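So, read this over?
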Amino acid sequence: MSITVATLGFPRIGPRRELKSALESFWSGKSDAQALLAVAADLRAKTWTRQRDLGVDHIPSNDFSLYDHVLDTSAMVGAIPAIYGWSGGEVGLDTYFAMARGAQNQDETEQAGCGHGHGLDVPASEMTKWFDTNYHYLVPEFAEGQIFALSSTKVVDQFVEARDQGVDTRPVLLGPVTYLKLGKSKAQGLDPRTLLDTILPVYAEVLNRLAEAGAQWVQIDEPCLVLDLDKADRSALHHAYASLAKTAPAVKVMLTTYFGGLVDNLETALSLPVAGLHVDLVRAPEQLDVVIARAPAELVLSLGVIDGRNVWRADLERLLDRLEPLVAGRRDWILAPSCSLLHTPIDLDAERSLDPDVRTWLAFAIQKIEELATLAKALNHGRASVADMLETSRLAAASRRASSKIHDPAVAERMAAVTGAMSRRASGFGQRRAAQAPRLGLPPFPTTTIGSFPQTEEVRKARSDHGKGVIDDAQYESFLREETARVVRWQEEIDLDVLVHGEFERNDMVQYFGEQLRGFVFTKNAWVQSYGSRCVRPPILYGDVSRPAPMTVEWWRYAQSLTARPMKGMLTGPVTILNWSFVRDDVTREFACRQIALAIRDEVVDLEAAGAKIIQIDEAALREGLPLRRGDWKAYLDWAVECFRLSASGVADQTQIHTHMCYSEFNDIIAAIGAMDADVISIETARSKMELLDAFADYAYPAEIGPGVYDIHSPRVPAAEEMADLLKAARTRLASGQLWVNPDCGLKTRKWPETRAALINMVAAAKTARQSVG
């Protein structure tokens, strides 16, 4: 019997976001591909070496990506939509990044200040959330008669690269069944699962090449095994792995599942011809005994015992109490995080300014590997061999349980006083709309933006200088006021109907609020990848939440004083703050969310009292918190919707409540969206060509909707005619009187030249639409 340690994936961005810097330098034309690839290679080498030095026995390769591992898989199998002009062979960086970000002709791109041109004018591929995380992936797109062929040898190249550096790795592949299930087809009636026999030869070729290069094990991720699967899904899994066992027999497969329990898919997983199985024992600890009882003796089990998605230090003694009886037998075991560490910050040692008590309760990716190594050593050699580390873990767990920083009696008292009436508007939507319309005086197809405007280098420098003390509070506020006034004037110039103040004072849509709420702490360097070069620093919710003072009222009041047009109050909703934070694991998510909802409610009421006619409460992440099993949906949606309504329902009928949702499939939760009872919802629909509106049309959604008419995740500037066509498509699904006109999402990450051009075109598209309704 031996206990070894594995990681399933490691953060890609680098401890100082080196990948982000290299990508954005390349995209802007300041550096070339060689420089980008050199940075990537250096990050990989350091990551492999560091994991080896920390005691990882099974080190992953091919977990690194320049943008997204699902996009990498599409490149590997040659699933490149025809619009990208790819003619076969190796998928190059131009094609790869065109799929990720869109591309525009060289002259147009240069005029918009967007960097590299690709001789194309194409939108980016559709993007959505990776299961129930805040990581985004590029949705594979398949065509009728789809042909797959090995078109990127990245997985083999990176294995060889690590081997040449003296590091033996376990390459990682996204499994064929999960990959096909994540994909879509524009061909009506094409089920991606029918493409399995076409794609399997590519997987077999990759596995055989890896075996020839010396790989003994390959990790194949099939997280679909924690979903509700039908008979066809299970048949596809059986067929796929039986085929690979025959066509690529020389390599051992570690089948990896995560984000939940196998439950009714356990029999399927255990019957597949693979050498190992990884299970998530953080999300589904209850599955441990049944997995062990039913797993064949020769199957190597990988136990995901350390949380790969949250930041809390593990109670190692408690884990050992659970694990020690299991390892008394002769089976070999692997200890691992529950999932890839992609979803956690890299190193707690970079956070010296955190509250010292809270800091002792935390573990980031490096510390989680240290925890795994400690567990393995204790199980292999006895607890005495790691006595000091176990004592540190015990003291941290005891400190957190007893800390007075976590529990606030005033919050508990307020929670107990919440009534059902507090989560209901006084009147229905029809009455509210009648009260709001004359007060706002908006034209048909009113135009607005989602909230933020570009945060330029000047804005970021001013924020940095203020944080360092280079400029004082008065100088910083003066700068922010000038930026706000400039953007308000510009919105009036291009004739937007409902304005925003630009959010120049805000670092992040969640962090800005969390920093003003009790119960949160914030990091300096704990970045996590959201997509591509987009990184976030999730707040850490450690205790009871309350709002000591108004958070946005003064900035709204100043912005509204600059214009006679309606100025939206901009807030982040309670469910999104919860889902985009590292949350407490000592209370339920529902309990924590209600506390946040009460704090946001206070801000909504104060904005209305200050004169705000429109208040937007963004719930960008409501759907991503949806449990992966349909049977668990109702409980989550009930409390999530109630929390939104609790935050929004303290205002009068004539105050218009907006909300915004990011990339999501709305069909299956449309009733819950309706139950949110917002007056206006804006959603991201440009990449789907308004297909996401079908759910709202089928549901007969009664309120107003702003379907995004251009994709802000791409630097591409669509023509006014293109946006007008999208509005026409929207009008085939919804009544003209329901429709607002806006971008897909906030404009914080974009540059000003492309933003100006796109919004001018957007206003022109709205005016064209108005002509058709008189």
